[in-house]
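re: the backbone from monday

yeah here it is again, tokenized this time
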């Protein structure tokens, strides 16, 4: 019996990073504001903004920090209610709590996407001040409908695009559709710095507020780059308005992290291509099983996956646990979100929330939705080993049940 490949090691950091890392270590120049200009973090922000086709980018310590600063930059009142999908990672509602706001959860369907009827009902009945769309595990909800509903009510939209770097919706880059987009550089994401995050926006007011609150004390905001080839007056005026008027949360990224990230940006397109190839190859094989269902993408969506999600069908909870155990014996780690103890993606475990709603559709989905890592670095032969293990385990579990 062939064992599945290791899916937890990240792709090696490009060799181009090593000379810059050595230079930084020799100089001790790790703080982003030491140099008078063109620090590695500032260069990363300009390059990432160019990659995304936006005016401003701010690199910070994590995607959670980016979400938090985005909420604070919107200048929401204390206890403002922020609508989010019920399927996301615990860091998302945590960032809302940290920003002195209240998370409001809406239903998510069996395809992992927002239930638009429930979303609209909670918009109209929940005194909502902002929307935070989590593209969980890279699955894009109907952004056309979501933005239309938000714009009709004058509500700002933040995109949690931690899993969606490289994803397109109707040709537009995910993370650039709302007022702010937030990305992750944690090791399991498309670009790996161990930890780190970045926010992007075209709004000078949001950018200036976020920069200052990220920890740009005194006049260090002058070391941030404005739009390439564009008049920077709007940004400079916004900085002037907020000088000394905002608290400093000190969530900066270091130059060492930027040195690790920057050489990976030219590899994003390849990683997106290979990740999509791997996902679609495994999905096509898994869909042949009567006990495994991989939800299809929405029409305008072009995904950039680094994992695969699927629903187990016709299995009892006991059989699903057997599936997980047997897959682990074959070298494939499977999480069933709702069955995995204390899983941070199961909303009923977020006991720090002031209110935990009853979300029967989301709960039903989480009780049978599976998660398997599928990094872009895998070959198709390695993907076949994973698919064969999952298919074989499902068949064995169900044959045992029938016997």
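seq for it, each position gets an aa:
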């Amino acid at each position: 019996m062939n064992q599945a490949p290791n899916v937890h090691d990240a792709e090696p950091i490009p060799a181009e990073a090593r000379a810059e890392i050595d230079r930084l270590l020799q100089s001790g120049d790790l703080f982003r504001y030491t140099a008078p200009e063109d620090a590695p973090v500032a260069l990363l922000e300009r390059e990432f903004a160019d990659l995304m086709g936006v005016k401003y980018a701010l690199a910070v310590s994590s995607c959670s920090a980016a979400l938090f600063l985005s909420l604070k930059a919107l200048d929401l009142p204390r206890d403002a209610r922020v609508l989010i999908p019920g399927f996301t990672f615990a860091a998302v509602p945590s960032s809302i709590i940290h920003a002195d706001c209240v998370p409001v959860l809406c239903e998510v369907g069996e395809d992992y996407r927002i239930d638009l009827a429930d979303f609209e009902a909670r918009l109209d009945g929940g005194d909502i001040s902002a929307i935070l769309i989590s593209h969980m595990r890279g699955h894009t909800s109907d952004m056309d409908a979501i933005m239309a509903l938000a714009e009709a009510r004058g509500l700002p939209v933040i995109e949690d695009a931690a899993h969606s770097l490289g994803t397109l919706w109707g040709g537009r880059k995910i993370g650039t559709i709302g007022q702010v987009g937030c990305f992750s550089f944690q090791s399991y994401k498309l670009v790996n710095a161990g930890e780190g995050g970045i926010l992007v926006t075209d709004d000078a007011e949001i950018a200036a507020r976020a920069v200052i609150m990220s920890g740009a004390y005194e006049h260090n905001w002058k070391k941030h780059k404005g739009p390439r080839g564009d008049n920077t007056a709007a940004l400079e005026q916004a900085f002037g308005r907020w000088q000394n008027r905002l608290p400093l949360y000190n969530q900066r990224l270091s130059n060492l992290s930027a040195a690790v990230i920057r050489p990976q940006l030219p590899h994003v397109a390849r990683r997106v291509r290979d990740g999509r190839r791997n996902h679609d190859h495994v999905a096509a094989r898994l869909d042949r099983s009567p006990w495994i269902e991989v939800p299809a993408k929405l029409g305008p969506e072009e995904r950039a996956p680094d994992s695969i999600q699927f629903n187990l069908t016709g299995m009892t909870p006991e059989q699903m646990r057997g599936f997980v155990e047997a897959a682990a014996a074959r070298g494939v780690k499977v999480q069933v979100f709702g069955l995995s103890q204390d899983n941070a993606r199961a909303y009923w475990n977020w006991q720090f929330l002031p209110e935990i709603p009853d979300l029967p559709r989301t709960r039903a989905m989480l009780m049978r939705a599976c998660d398997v890592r599928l990094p872009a670095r895998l070959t198709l032969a390695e993907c076949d080993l994973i698919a064969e293990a999952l298919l074989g385990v499902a068949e064995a579990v169900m044959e045992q049940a029938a016997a």
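Residues 305 and 315 are 26 Å apart (CA to CA). The chain has a mean pLDDT of 96.
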